[in-house]
Amino acid sequence: DAKTTQPPSMDCAEGRAANLPCNHSTISGNEYVYWYRQIHSQGPQYIIHGLKNNETNEMASLIITEDRKSSTLILPHATLRDTAVYYCIVRVNFGNEKLTFGTGTRLTIIP
Amino acid sequence: NAGVTQTPKFQVLKTGQSMTLQCAQDMNHNSMYWYRQDPGMGLRLIYYSASEGTTDKGEVPNGYNVSRLNKREFSLRLESAAPSQTSVYFCASSEGFRNTIYFGEGSWLTVV
User: Fold this and answer.
1) Gap from B35 CA to chain A (nearest CA, Å)
2) I need a surface site. Which of A45, A67, A85, B69 has the fewest CB within 10 A?
3) Looking at residue A95, what is its pLDDT?
4) Which region holds residue B63: left if phi is over 0, alpha if psi is between -120 and 50, else beta?
């Protein structure tokens, strides 16, 4: 029972903003949206997470729609090193729920 | 700043052999996890440990056992390896379930 839906692949030109969409139409009120990425067979790397407000850190921005049914991860100035598989995950932030990874979006940054 | 360290990084086993994957974290985290990732697929949780002394099954526990040796170490054991267990295994840790999870670099296991 996949909680999120992401496009399987995307391309983005180097230096441009990469916008990765994620649908999570069944998200419940206490579930956060998390983004991780995995660069070529390395361990997944945490990027950002949020509940309902937009969030920004040194890596990316997370825009969550008002109804919380979808979100967008924004890499403002994509570099070749941002080529990776990006996972959008929803989870509660308490109790025993663990991260469940789907198949993610393979983002390719094009020179 | 080692973070999460896994050993071995690569291993080839024959069907029926046993082995243990070792994992240690130096971040004083309470929770630790073992995931597997098959080619072209996302990560699937095998076992997790909420805190020292506790372990619980994840999504795909069959064929595996785990030991939370102390707060730092969480090992994964394959008692009788099968070709279906050929995969990349990731250990991870977090301060608690509500916190960011940090992953190791992975262990590539091939069962022939």
Assistant:
1) 10
2) A67
3) 53
4) left
Nearest-Cα distance to chain A for B100, in Å, is: 7
In terms of CA atoms, which chain B residue is nearest residue A39? B105
What average pLDDT does range A20-35 have in this prediction?
Answer: 90
Give me the residue from B35, B42, B50 closest to A104, CB to CB: B42
Q: For residue A1, what pLDDT is reported?
A: 45
Q: Which amino acid type is present at position B73?
A: E
- Chain A residues whose CB is inside 8 A of the B90 CB are 43-44
Mean pLDDT score across all residues of chain A? 89
Q: Beta-carbon neighbour count of residue A40 at 10 Å? A: 7
Side-by-side strand order, sheet with A61-64: A18-23, A70-75, A61-64, A55-56
Return the beta strands (E) in chain B as ranges. Answer: 4-7, 10-13, 19-25, 31-37, 43-49, 56-57, 64-68, 74-78, 87-94, 102-103, 107-111
Query: Are the Cβ atoms of A103 and B48 closer than 8 angstroms?
Result: no
**Tens digit of each residue's pLDDT (9 = 90 or more) over A47-76:** 999 998 899 999 999 999 999 999 999 999
Q: Please give the order of strands across the beta sheet that includes A45-50.
A: A9-13, A105-110, A84-92, A31-38, A45-50
